[in-house]
TrEMBL record:
This is YvrJ family protein. InterPro entries: YvrJ (IPR024419). It comes from Jeotgalibacillus proteolyticus. It holds the Pfam family YvrJ.
């Protein structure tokens, strides 16, 4: 049981941080994609 607690404490934090950052990046990428589509429509 102690090994599981140690594993979760060592690996859990980096996983949570990674998921949080991926969520933020996804939202920003969506905004960039929308901007690119809007720009191509304005050029045409």
């Amino acid at each position: 049981m102690d090994q599981w607690i140690k594993l979760v404490s060592e690996v859990g934090f980096p996983i949570i941080v990674t998921l949080y950052l991926l969520h933020r990046i996804e939202a920003k990428l969506e905004a960039v994609i929308q901007s690119i589509h809007g720009l191509s429509e304005k050029v045409n």
